[in-house]
Amino acid sequence: MDEYNIKGTPEVYTIAVNCCSLTGDWEFAMTVYNDMIKKDVAPDEMFLSALIDVAGHAGNVDAAFEAVNKARKDGMHLGIISYSSLMGACSNAKSWEKALEVYEDMKSIKMKPTISTMNALITALCES
């Protein structure tokens, strides 16, 4: 983004990462993320959700979990948006074990899953 002199906000970075989702371009999404961190722009939950989504479309569910764990370590509050994206990543990667892990984590913190979260869990269980 330096070459275009774009002022970085979490929203701008989220849009850039969302563009990677359909193609699953994890490398470019990480380039965007690293630029964001370099410029001291704090990721928000929408950005994290977009990053998780790219990892899921790339079939890289481990990267999605790494992003979530880093966000937790950095003190970010994870809400239903992040958990739903993570469940979707598990579903896309056909990783039913990881999907159940997300579901159990949600239960342990008493987070109520949405219909789309449960649909992603069911899809992961049925298609894996």
From TrEMBL:
<feature type="repeat" description="PPR">
    <location>
        <begin position="79"/>
        <end position="113"/>
    </location>
</feature>
<feature type="repeat" description="PPR">
    <location>
        <begin position="9"/>
        <end position="43"/>
    </location>
</feature>
<dbReference type="Pfam" id="PF17177">
    <property type="entry name" value="PPR_long"/>
</dbReference>
<dbReference type="InterPro" id="IPR011990">
    <property type="entry name" value="TPR-like_helical_dom_sf"/>
</dbReference>
<dbReference type="InterPro" id="IPR002885">
    <property type="entry name" value="PPR_rpt"/>
</dbReference>
<protein>
    <recommendedName>
        <fullName>PROP1-like PPR domain-containing protein</fullName>
    </recommendedName>
</protein>
<feature type="domain" description="PROP1-like PPR">
    <location>
        <begin position="29"/>
        <end position="123"/>
    </location>
</feature>
<dbReference type="InterPro" id="IPR033443">
    <property type="entry name" value="PROP1-like_PPR_dom"/>
</dbReference>
<dbReference type="InterPro" id="IPR053303">
    <property type="entry name" value="Chloroplast_PPR"/>
</dbReference>
<keyword id="KW-0677">Repeat</keyword>
